[in-house]
């Protein structure tokens, strides 16, 4: 464990830090600004150069916090990612992947992030209400106008990725990534999304590698969650974490502790290192409410887990792993 390592994002020429810093449920809501700035500073100090946010996080405040936190950094030394799709205002057009919303959203994101361009602009879900051609043509205009270098998607199915990739080739824009949930417990991308992405040259930027904190082992079966933890905070994803908060899952996770110890890793480091063993994963997104969490997670960069350890992990968690590719879902109507 030592210096940050870098990987290509998909088959593109752009390198990203193996650990990226994401501010989904922290900046602008859960954590006060000072703490957010301290976490970003810690990320920069450990060599993280890749920062992921979205217009919808904390009702656009997360982008603004990140913009302020990165102000004064050398822009070329950073990879800044954001997303578009979920509602960011009260109007019927303040959402979706329509041309109107994409064109307005990129400008809003750039203003809040205080930058002229983002390195990666991502479709935050698949939009069933807008023709894919319209979405991809709008993305092409964003790229060709210099407001984004690359295009990505998030939580798209293999068939949707294939259709978008075909249009991206025609439009001459680089579609290089998908941002799915992925962890020791949540492996729904392995059967279809990963093979399609490998074939087409997309890399995964995975979120929730620690399963919302469950894989740290801090939640104990039969006991209330620790005060101030994510499972107690409605703003910070308590609803999201519920699927993992069963006694069966929590007691199974406790059995991973000796494996982490044997590998000389914390539970969080083991979880983050595990997703990075998948060669299609370009980066693992970590969030934090305190700088020490950033430093702890970042130490998973460059860690190689041996085959015996990976097999032992699989044997323990097999009964509780979710693998169903149908669990990758986007809303069935406009949000």
From TrEMBL:
Keyword Oxidoreductase: yes
Span of domain NADP-dependent oxidoreductase: 18-317
Keywords: NADP, Oxidoreductase
GO molecular function: oxidoreductase activity
CC terms in the record's Gene Ontology section: cytosol
GO aspect biological process, one term: methylglyoxal catabolic process
Classification via CDD domains: Aldo_ket_red_shaker-like
Cited Pfam families: Aldo_ket_red
Domain of life per record: Bacteria
PANTHER family referenced in this protein's UniProt entry, alphabetically: HYPERKINETIC, ISOFORM M, L-GLYCERALDEHYDE 3-PHOSPHATE REDUCTASE
Family of this protein: Belongs to the shaker potassium channel beta subunit family.
Protein name: Aldo/keto reductase
Organism, scientific name: Phytohabitans rumicis
């Amino acid at each position: 464990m030592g210096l940050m390592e870098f990987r290509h994002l998909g088959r593109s020429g752009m390198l990203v830090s193996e650990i990226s810093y994401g501010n989904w449920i922290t900046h602008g809501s859960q954590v006060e600004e000072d703490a957010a700035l301290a976490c970003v500073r810690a990320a920069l100090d450990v060599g993280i150069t890749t920062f992921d946010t979205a217009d919808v996080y904390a009702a656009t405040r997360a982008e603004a916090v990140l913009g302020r936190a990165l102000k004064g950094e050398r822009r070329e030394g950073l990879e800044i990612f954001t997303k578009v799709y979920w509602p960011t205002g009260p109007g019927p057009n303040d959402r979706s992947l329509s041309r109107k919303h994409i064109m307005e959203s990129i400008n809003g994101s750039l203003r809040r992030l205080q930058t002229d361009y983002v390195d990666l602009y991502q479709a935050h879900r698949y939009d069933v209400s807008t023709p894919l051609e319209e979405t991809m043509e709008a993305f092409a205009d964003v790229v060709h106008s210099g407001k984004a270098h690359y295009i990505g998607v998030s939580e798209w199915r293999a068939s949707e990725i294939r259709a978008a990739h075909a249009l991206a080739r025609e439009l001459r824009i680089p579609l290089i990534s998908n941002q799915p949930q992925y962890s020791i417990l949540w492996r729904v991308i392995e059967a279809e999304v990963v093979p399609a992405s490998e074939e087409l040259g997309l890399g995964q930027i995975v979120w929730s590698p620690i399963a919302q904190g469950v894989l740290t082992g801090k939640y104990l079966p039969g006991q209330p969650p620790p005060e101030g933890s994510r499972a107690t905070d409605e703003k910070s994803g308590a609803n999201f974490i519920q699927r993992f908060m069963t006694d069966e899952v929590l007691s199974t996770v406790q059995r991973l502790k000796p494996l982490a110890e044997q590998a000389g890793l914390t539970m969080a480091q083991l979880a983050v290192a595990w997703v990075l063993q998948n060669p299609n994963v370009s980066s693992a997104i970590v969030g934090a409410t305190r700088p020490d969490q950033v430093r702890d997670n970042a130490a998973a960069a460059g860690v190689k887990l041996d085959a015996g350890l990976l097999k032992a992990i699989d044997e323990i968690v097999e009964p509780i792993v979710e693998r169903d590719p149908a669990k990758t879902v986007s809303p069935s109507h406009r949000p």
